[in-house]
Write a structure and sequence with these properties.
two-stranded parallel ribbon
Length: about 160
């Protein structure tokens, strides 16, 4: 699909066209859930391959535990500015579905994703609280950054 803005490389994240140890950091915001659960270990191994020793994977993805609990508790979601109801639950679980590839094929909670990261040889896995930052131009909250962070529905 056509991606607006500056994009340096468009490729399959399971087969990155970079040498081993090319990067200090990988930032993957709402990317991993678009691969099936059987493909996830391969994607994580590939990301580990291109990271330098001591590099950081900053990973944002939906957190099944938080999604389910927020739905049951009818929590107000600051990111979407909606109460967790069926449409918002479907958005977090299944993706926006605004174009054919915009669907979620897998989901995890922190412990399950942590096991997959360990199997892909990632170490020092931590979960950080997601910070919502006000975007001056839009007046809406935007995701902050942190390694393996939670969102209203995210890890």
């Amino acid at each position: 699909r056509d991606i607006p803005g500056k994009v340096d490389v468009v490729c399959d994240a399971k087969a990155l066209p970079f040498d081993k140890g090319s990067f200090d950091r990988i930032y993957a915001r709402h990317v991993l859930e678009h691969w099936g659960h059987r493909e996830t270990p391969e994607v994580l191994r590939e990301w580990h391959r291109v990271l330098k020793s001591g590099g950081v994977l900053e990973l944002h993805c939906p957190d099944l535990d938080k999604i389910i609990q927020s739905y049951l508790d009818e929590v107000f979601d600051l990111y979407t500015e909606q109460t967790f109801d069926n449409p918002l639950l479907c958005h977090y679980l299944y993706g926006s579905q605004e174009y054919p590839a915009d669907t979620h094929k897998a989901g995890w909670n922190f412990s399950a994703l942590g096991r997959l990261l360990e199997e892909a040889e990632f170490r020092d896995i931590e979960r950080r609280k997601l910070q919502l930052l006000a975007d001056q131009s839009l007046g809406k909250p935007e995701h902050g950054s942190a390694p393996v962070p939670p969102a209203a529905g995210g890890l």
